[in-house]
Write a structure and sequence with these properties.
Number of domains: 1
Shape: globular
Structural class: mainly alpha
Number of helices: 7
Distance between the termini: 70 Å
Bound molecules: heme C
Strand order of the largest sheet: 2-1-3
Amino acid sequence: MSRFHFALPALAVLALSACQQAPQSVAPVATASAEPNADADLLARGEYIARIGGCNDCHTPGYPESGGTVPKPQWLVGSPLGWNGPWGTTYPANLRLKLQQMDEATWMAYSAGLHTRPPMPDFAVRAMNEQDRRALYRFIRSLGPGGQPAPAYQPPGEAPKPPYVQWVLPAPPPKASVAG
Ligand code: HEC
């Protein structure tokens, strides 16, 4: 769909050029349209990653419950649904607000070494190639700022602020016995 946003102005300019009957003016138009298409590809790639990489599952309120039908303008605004486990309680960050605070170079460095608390799959973001991390940045920035900051992290031992998902993990393995 975003392709049309870029394609329409390009067509309009081409039509104008045709009226002026100045063939040499066509060349710059063709060059100019190459860049927006590359951008459109990056945006589409970023959207695809957010959709299939699980980002919406946690960072978009109600996304899994809706069967993945939450409209794009509501994506990635962070979630009040907390995740409680031995690490305390974490809330998926509002990525729209977070990325507004970073330029692209800062995001590239930050995302390459991303470390968060569970259950955020920070390892998945670190494993992405540069192109994919850049695509995510471009796409999330294209959504603009939106929503409110997610609730603050709560350390272990503090009563979690509902709603939250509780992880009931297996007991740690017993320490090696010295008997026998
Ligand atoms: C299983 C749920 C889950 C999934 C899936 C998930 N996240 Fe997260 N994410 C979280 C939680 C919870 C936090 C907060 C972690 C913390 O407080 O340390 C977080 C934090 C982050 C942060 C750090 C924000 C900050 O304030 O520093 C980034 C960046 C991020 N997620 C990006 C992504 C991207 C990109 C994807 C998709 C590839 C994704 N997340 C998928 C749950 C998830």
